[in-house]
Design a protein that fits this description.
The structure is a homodimer of 115-residue chains. Chain A has 115 residues and is of the alpha+beta class. The first copy, chain A, has one domain: Arc Repressor Mutant, subunit A (Orthogonal Bundle). Chain A is 56% helix and 12% strand. In chain A, helix 2 packs across helix 5. The radius of gyration of chain A is 16 Å and the shape is globular. Chains A and B meet through helix 1, helix 2 and helix 5 of A and helix 1, helix 2 and helix 5 of B. Chain A binds a DNA duplex (30 and 30 nucleotides) through helix 1, helix 3 and helix 4.
Amino acid sequence: MEDRFSQQLKKGVLEMLVLKLICGGPTYGYELLTRLREESHGRFVLKEGTLYPILYRLEDEGLIAARWSQGEGRTAPKKMYEATEAGILENIRRMQVWQEFEETVNGFYRGGNNA
Amino acid sequence: MEDRFSQQLKKGVLEMLVLKLICGGPTYGYELLTRLREESHGRFVLKEGTLYPILYRLEDEGLIAARWSQGEGRTAPKKMYEATEAGILENIRRMQVWQEFEETVNGFYRGGNNA
DNA sequence: TTAAAATACTTAGCAATGCTAAATAGTATT
DNA sequence: AATACTATTTAGCATTGCTAAGTATTTTAA
């Protein structure tokens, strides 16, 4: 259980990170859960109910595309996602927005005012 | 009008910044609106409907305390806020949480994985 | 001296997103 | 055969920023 503050900080950022990971190459929901957990060193441990709706939103917005893969070695199908061209561009844009946002916030903690 | 992404990034951060500003010395709602706008160079332009509920939450949580000031030069009262001891400690904690959060997010954009 | 603008606070209702929780199903391990 | 792991779906809640409108006082300008 996290405090409310930490929880709220994630809003918007999770979707950005999921898009970023998918831009790195085709992947699927369950793997994203694992990667978010591991690559954040246990700081972004999502429940399925958080991740999957993010994937559906990204798909609705046309930023990623899905196809069901008939596993080769195994039979159970996975829903593979990859970034569309629009998704790749949007990923770049969000990175820039994030960086500017970060700078703005940090400005409030530097020397009293944000020069 | 901002895009949905930029809007969502603010969640949690606005309350953190308001607490930070109040920790810097007694102030009141309208002044906070101005300072957030100016010290962010126009990036955090809040409507009253966003700011005042934040102040009420901080007060409910016991992080800030309010008193009505009978203006000296003017008659109209302002609701002055200042940080409580708990608020000062919480401000420090949130700064640390923010810094760790920031690091974690940036980790996803550095060298592919978050070492 | 009246009208407008700026100062200052309040509140109702909506939108977006992370959370809890539970359900479904196939595969691997013991 | 039972349990754990992989994998996806969905319903409902909580939090918080947004729009929008309203009230009231003070200052400025016509």
